[in-house]
Amino acid sequence: MQFRGTPLPLSGPQVKTGESLREAALAKGDLSLVNIQEPKGMVRVISVVPSLDTKVCEQQTHYLSEKNQGLDQQVKLITVSVDTPFAQQRFAKEAGIANVEFLSDFRGGDFGKSHGLLLEGPHVLARAIMVVDANNVIRYLQVTPDLGQMPDMDKAFQVARGLLK
User: Fold this and answer.
1) Which residue numbers are catalytic?
2) What is the pTM of this model?
3) Domains of the chain in sequence order
């Protein structure tokens, strides 16, 4: 992982396609905690971004919300960042995004550490997109090699659609 050519180490063992989603507590908008493994029995597209206050993260989140071509009616769309739940709520309101659930890893990076997606130095999450099936198995995962690079959201949508058949 790098940012503008500077290497950034990731903490923890990184999850891989075919592995189960690991348990991790994330904060919802009301500060209550939810396990990323819930709800079971539902396909999820999980968009992981460093901070919603950056241009690429904003672009990735809008793409998830607006370009999913009706997928949001059949699967759960989730964005995870280390932004506070209050900042996430403000972002969603200002951006007019109501079809994505925002979950925060601000309480110590539990999700990032357990999935190998937390950047050690800046304490932000790597940029990634993952598709998790109804049994909590990761069916698609792309971690971008550079924080400034968008993941292939359309490929994630395609995999999610395939899991609905």
Assistant:
1) 57
2) 0.93
3) 2-163 (3.40.30.10)
